[in-house]
Amino acid sequence: MNDLAPLLTPEGRALLDAVRGTAPADELAVATRLRRDHPAPLVSAALAQARLRQRAVAKFGTEDAHRMFFTPDGVEQSTRASVAAYRAARLKELGVTSVADLCCGIGGDAIALARAGIRVLAVDRDPATAATARANADALGLAGLIEVREADVTEVDTSGHDAVFVDPARRGGRGRIFDPEAYSPPLSWAVAAARTAPVAALKIAPGVPHEAVPADAEAEWISDHGDVKEAVLWFGTAPGTVRATLLPGPRTLRGAGLPDPPVRPLGRYLYEPDGAVIRAHLVADVAAELDGGLLDATIAYVTADTLRPTPYATAYEITDQLTFNVKKLKALLRERGVGVLTVKKRGSAVGPEELRRKVKPQGPHAATVFLTRVAGAPTMLIGAPAAV
Fold it and tell me: CA distances (Å), 189 to each of 182, 192, 202, in order?
């Protein structure tokens, strides 16, 4: 049921309240009961929307998610609220008062921009998606700041706005799209549109090749609680700058153009850089901050002799280094009574679950095992999070 209109009526809203929190196992019984007094299609639509709202809690929080409206693609593709709020705050700091939000989806970024006091023109060509964005602006009391327009973004005049934000669709009928020119609209069009405004932000996949970043753009990789969420190309800010931003915070590491760190022997501590740092190719900057080096020239693990606090990497104290040998590892873990085993891998063909099945950890103690390479040799490192 793509038409949101029935859900926006008093009857539809009452049904949404009635089905909130319905467990999947209870849906049939709830639907059977409600269909005695309400049209079956409306009951089905309310239950479907309730499922989407439950999924959306992870991105939007409980309060907003259960007031908003979603499409299946909208839940999957929308920006996490914390990331959208960070970007909106940065635009606000740049003096932006109005934004043309192109490919607005269900309105997640438009909501964050409006909450920052920025006027938004939100554009999407899909009728159901545009209707959802409009319903969300109204549901959250932001309709006065958000104008939703159903249109082809390539035909929208953005000249009356201080900034342009473009979020091209990166999923198609076959799943995630990796070729930037296969985005909808293509990356080349989005870059051209971004260049028409005094300030612009272009959301792209975090795996975008660095060579695809235009010379006149600033590139920023953003993570939230350690999970890399997106990359953003900024125009009108600091051309050529590379940044890694960690949320919450925010904490931002700006690249200094350092050469690759040297490879050195394992020290007492191993540092696992945040994913945004790795994606931004700023491991050298973290290594310099820690006076450390790499375990292997191709692996993004930093090792150092001293423990130093840094928001850009998680520190582990390493107690053992073994050549890759599952039997020896199993014996060592049994000897130390390790039953809670965290397995991390980088540069190893063995997966965490496979290793757990083989070593069968048992006991009251905990340990972390790194499956990696040291100077090219498959290696197991055993340790635990360091107390900083």
Answer: 11, 5, 11
Tokens of 209: 């090749």
Give buried/exposed letters for 35-64 (b at 16+ CB in 10 A, else e).
Answer: eeebeeebbebbbbbbbbbbebeebbeeeb
Distance of CA 126 to the CA centre of its chain: 24
Burial group, residue 137, by CB count within 10 angstroms (0-12, 13-18, 19+): buried
321 token code pair: 């280094």
∠ CA 137-140-143, nearest 5°, is 35
Q: pLDDT (tens digit, 9 = 90+) per residue, 205-262?
A: 899 899 989 999 999 999 999 999 999 999 999 999 999 999 999 999 999 999 999 9
CA distance readout (Å), 88 to 193, 195, 202, 352? 19, 19, 13, 38
**pLDDT over threshold 50, residue 55:** yes
Which strands sit side by side in the sheet containing 293-294, from one edge to the other?
293-294, 302-304, 269-273, 313-323, 377-385, 365-374, 338-345
d(C-alpha 133, C-alpha 145), whole Å: 13
> Residue 252: which H helix or E strand, with range?
strand 251-254
Tokens 């890399």 belong to which residue? 228
Neighbours of 97 (CB within 10 A): 12
Residue 180: what pLDDT?
73
Q: Which two tokens stand for residue 279?
A: 């994606």
- Distance from chain centroid for Cα 155: 29
The DSSP bridge pattern shows strands 302-304 and 338-345 to be unpaired
| Cα 343 to Cα 100: distance, rounded to the nearest angstrom | 44
Q: Which amino acid is at 2?
A: N
**Residue 376 in 3-state DSSP?**
coil
